[in-house]
Amino acid sequence: MNRSQWIGVLIVGMSLGTAWAVRGQFGHEQGAAWAGGIGALALVLMSQRTDWYRKLFPIAMVSAIGWGVTGMISYGRVVGFGRSNDFPNVFYGLLMLFVIGGLFGLLGGGLTGLCLESSEKKKVKWASLMAEVVAGGLISYGFLVQQIGVLMTPPRSEAWAFCLGGGLAMLWYMARNGFNSSLRVALFTAFGAGFGFAFGNFLQTVGTVLQIQFNMWNVMEYSIGFFGGTAMAYTVLTSEWPKTEQPPKRWENQSALFFLVAFIPLIVFRESIQYSHLVNRFGDIQNVEHLANLSSWIAAFVLVVGIFSAWFFFVRKAYSGEKNRAKYLFAGYLAVYIFMSYVVTGVSAGQFHLNHHLYVVNFIVIFLLLSKVDMSVAEIKVHAMHYGKYRLLFLSILLFIALLALVSISIHDELAGAQQRFPV
């Protein structure tokens, strides 16, 4: 890969990393979905493929669903396992974070790849796929959790088992129907996001030990998105993709756009930015009720302006794949998400946090880098699936995680927030 292509990979990594860090202010499926949509928009922008520009909205929507559905997984206690001071618990914690992050990337990268690979000659049967994913999830949860009692995060939710079954069903659909490029993207993105979660937890521990005055939890979240995004972008660049001649139907574009710019943000508003949520979140700030009410109205105004702007620029003036308008959507979608993170952390009360300012720095750097991207995805093609390399990569990551666990227990004693999965 040349310099321009590596810049493209970096753009996607920084975009998804920033968005996933912002997601830390909101959590859950809706926060992850917004971040996943941002990652897909960055991926399409850096590709410079006009056929992908034309189906920008469906690609971003499918990516949002893939990354978003895994937002149901509970991992707070697992992070605590990684902060223990004995090898069995730390290794278990880091390994399970690798699994959880892997599920983020598996479904997020896999569904994104399927949307890219679906064409007139070989279409993805989305209804059939979704039925298989749901069935696989229910079977996996019922068997692993309810039948044989495999518990990763007791007493928290074991929703990871549902996502695991859904992800395996998706892989089986890909293999059965010959979607090899999508299969490759799913596996590599799973490795990337999984590694990012485990490594991010290690960085969080190191930051705590060194008493770095920064939101180290947010560093961990950025690590998930950055490594997951770079893995997804690299695999997309090094895979073969069909050219899509027929653009999406008008209703498909409009439905996908509505899902991205209205449905997801409004759910985020309902769950995190309503007056009652902000009163509880702001805590002991002076004039908390007034500031919470003001912040909620400001957020609502920005979201409404964003929705009407999207309607005006992409529906009233029908979108047909123009790169500049795609860039405007990406900029607006990421900027509004960053702005919402300021709102929910008390900007109206004069509260500012360094990690939020770094979101803005990332935003600026991303757009500076976008001006340097000049490439085509079709220039690089990898036709074969070399499963031996995947096994080697998996074993290498396991060994690295074991090394991280050894280093982690050697640099600290008991830490706040540490959890014990096994009595040692």
Automatic annotation (TrEMBL):
Q: Which UniProt keywords apply?
A: Membrane, Transmembrane, Transmembrane helix
Spell out where the chain crosses the membrane.
31-47, 59-78, 90-114, 126-144, 159-175, 187-207, 219-237, 257-277, 297-316, 328-348, 354-371, 392-411
Q: Please give the coiled-coil regions recorded for this protein.
A: none
Top-rank taxon, per record: Bacteria
Name of the protein described by the UniProt record: Uncharacterized protein
Q: Which organism is it from?
A: Mariniphaga anaerophila
